[in-house]
Predict the 3D structure of the following.
Amino acid sequence: MAAAARPPDDGEGAATTNPDAARDEAAVVLTPSAGIPQLGDRELSTLAQIGQHWRNAVADRDAWDRALPVDPHLHPLIDKTPQGRRRRFADVAFRLEPKEESKPNKKGDDQGDVEATEDATADESPPRQALNRLRRVLVGAPLRSTAVTEERMRKLVALPVLSSDALSSVAYGPEAMLAVLVLGGSGALGLSLPIAGVIVLLMFAVGLSYRQTIRAYPRGGGSYIVASGELGEVPGLLAAAGLMLDYILTVAVSIAAGVAAITSAIPSTRGDQVVIGLAAIAILLAGNLRGVRQAGAIFAAPTYAFIAAILLLSAVGLIDAAGRGFQALPHPPVHATEGLGVLLVLRAFASGSTAMTGIEAISDGIPAFKRVEWRNARTTLTWMVGLLIVMFIGTMLLAVLDGVVPNGQQTVLSQLASKHFGSGPLYIFTQASTAAILLLAANTAYSDFPRLLFFLARDFHAPRLFLRMGDRLSFSNGIIALTVAASALYVAFNGETDALIPLFAVGVFLAFTLSQSGMIRHWLVRREPGWRHSLLFNGIGAVLSAIVLMVTSVTKFVEGAWIVVILVPLLVILFLRIRVHYDRVGEAIRLHRLPFNEDCQPVLPRAVGPPPGLTPAAGRVEISAAAPRHAGEEEEESPDAIAHLIVAPLVSLDLASLRTLAYGASLGQPLLAVHLATDETDAERFRRYWSTWGDYVPLQIIHSPYRSLIVPLARYIEALKEQRPDLTITVVLPELVVKRAWHRLLHNQVAPRLRRALREQKGVVVATVPFHLPG
């Protein structure tokens, strides 16, 4: 099967008749087929013209049906298994899916499609069985593609899942700001409340601006989508690169801060922070691979517990302060190590602004909400921003009133909880909930990072493997990629929060700035009702975000922000190079019109006789479930002893696939085209394209509702072989041949994987039709 490549944006074909509408439709619910490129009107016209040549080349369409020596619907094996008898392989692995009466195919075939059951997706090779059992225990049983609409969150679940990053930053944002101010001595600490006030204003402005973003992009308005749509490709990729690095850092920083909370409460665990952190990342990996809904149910409680703990701590602390007339207690002696100047204040502001990371997560994750998605998203965003502001103000007020400053032994929150709760149950509850939310705050990144990679891959800026949904309808490849990157970063910095914080804010505020700038252009161009108010909010958000971006980039550059400043353009260059490759592939495999050939010699398939003991019925060989195996299997030493069936698996109808189909038909043997559909949308789309082409050879649609391709296809071929053990089945596959080694990572490598899966089957030959791509 040829890997899906980028269709042309202009010229003979277009990616879709209405690209914006198709993109918006895909963004509402990210279905397994949402990333499959669609043929535009021009390409469909070209496909129909190619079909006219096939009509002359294959002559008698019914002859290709009659020539099939097997039933592609597997009726003999599924329908005719006697009751009470041990179920045969095909009866377990596949079931018939009747077609809707309103959608008969061209030949009036009402026998239905074949659907691969869950049993057909399991690799039964001994090395894989133990892994499959372990995966089922950790991840759970696979979900059908139709369950994608059920794997969405209501507001009470979405709030902790998508807000845990932002809300958890209360645990380290204020401390990061105070840690900079203590360098300027006691005088600098007096500026903590004014700086905190500016940060609160920034939270309010950015929160309001993202409400406007959700209004303008009700189907999903992440920074990448907004910046790409309003400002262009490169600004969109800059936003995507910034967000990707932010999500990776979110995992590393959240885990580091959570481990710091544990080591503050349990000093004996100091020195084991790397092991504890990696264990926490592994738990996050397993939880998110189980799917959005289950991950939300697992990780919701710690967020609500943390909210309750901070609000209770703030209330008790303010009551205690009220008893002494809100008189601030003296803080421990602080000796200045740096002069109090503008640079120090700006550094403190930049560090405290890390409390805002994660605000964009809800606008990114609109498709994860239950209906009405945009309305639920705006409500959840309002609650998140409100809670964030209240918790941030409460923490900062208590730190000032209680005279608490950062030290190397206890976090600021631990000191506040110890002061007001003592060492009893409430202190333990506060520390436990803080550690839990910090460890699980990375779940926000696990929700949005794979979705961002999906959109990049859909737009051909990232490898297409990130389009695939895993067993639990989560983007498992993106989840694994985030885990690997975050784990490497965490280990490299030895799990130290202070070392990771300087890297944190650059990427997210770059995305904030570009997103809000894009919204400014959106309102100026569209001028929709209420656009002036929206323009004001987005303008304030853009200006403030740009200020924080510049301040952070300058003040934190030497401390480590230079890494992000360098990585962002490098990632953009990588995205663009990937796009260039896919553009070349799309140009290479784009359909083109064929010249008329008056001397075309029709190709007719050679009929394959029935095996011994069976008789033809109505022009088709009727195969019983108890068909005997040929005694001389794999002992054919004469050409006339070989009975052929050509099977051509097709992902799409591009040039590489049609060349492979033409090669199979040219052999003059019975030919069966097979398409594995991950959902009904994919199946209907391929039927429509096949009908436009002309339906000149038999086609069998196999529904793979668990989104597995290789194993169900291998099992289907095994089922065909079970009907006629004497057949030699040749599987012909298009294989894209690349000139550079790294380009292999951008394609699915189906041909070698299927070859390995079919290696153990007797009487099956795999032939690849190479399609050489330009460099």
